[in-house]
Structures are given as C-alpha cells and as structure tokens.
Write a structure and sequence with these properties.
Layout: E1 3-7, E2 10-13, E3 18-25, E4 32-39, E5 46-51, E6 58-59, E7 68-73, E8 78-83, E9 92-100, E10 113-114, E11 118-123
Parallel strand pairs: 2-11
Antiparallel strand pairs: 1-3, 3-8, 4-5, 4-9, 5-6, 7-8, 9-10, 9-11
C-alpha cells in the first residue's frame, strides 16, 4: 500500500510560479509511474503530467506543456511539479497519483493510489 502526501500549494498571482511536491511511502518508489492530476470546481479531474519510473520519460497535455515540469527523486521518494506562467485557469486541487507499470498513463482510472490533494489558487 502506497501513501502519497502533497505539499507546496497555495495562492499565487497570475504569471507567477509554484512548486508542488509529493512524498511517497509504503512501497518501492522506483517501481511506480507517478502522475499529477488536477480538479477545478464543477469539473472532471484531468491529467497534468506523468513521469516514468526511471524519470527519463515524461508527458504533458497541451494545456500545460512548456509551462509545467514533472521530476522525481527515487532516492528521496518524491515527485515534484514545477508550475510556471500560471493563469487563473490553473486554479484547482492538484493530486499526486501512483501505479506500477512501464507506460506513461494519462487517465484517472489507470492509477491505484492518490494523495489528498493540494489547493492551488491563481489570482488575476
């Protein structure tokens, strides 16, 4: 059983940056593909970023590509999401997710473990 805890959320002005971190415990971290998702009020939870178990492959949707960067440290059991050039449309609760595997999974149903979420609020 893997436990995930996000940190680093908060308020930020449009154009600013924020870095989220997710700490994992309870499993062999390097066995897991790690993803970030977000959910805005009244909307479905959507894919934001994914990183392979080794950290050498990543994938992003068009909405965040070039602005967000996912990275991981298998020695520290952490995965981070660096978010730059934030806009009010990025306001959401951000979730860290994990699953075993070798592909870059991009849908909510493909993940087995979830964190409790971190609120990110971008003001104009």
């Amino acid at each position: 059983q893997v436990q995930l805890v996000e940190s680093g959320g908060g308020p930020v002005q449009a154009g600013g940056s924020l870095r989220l971190s997710c700490a994992a415990s309870g499993g062999t971290f390097s066995n897991y593909v790690m993803g970030w998702f977000r959910q805005a009020p009244g909307k479905e939870r959507e894919f934001v970023a994914v990183i392979s178990w080794s950290g050498d492959k990543t994938n992003y949707p068009a909405s965040v590509k070039g602005r967000f960067t996912i990275s991981r440290d298998n020695a520290k059991n952490t995965v981070d999401l660096q978010m730059n050039s934030l806009t009010p449309a990025d306001t959401a609760v951000y979730y860290c997710a994990a699953r075993r595997g070798t592909l870059l999974y991009t849908t909510r149903g493909q993940y087995d473990y979830w964190g409790q979420g971190a609120q990110v609020t971008v003001s104009s």
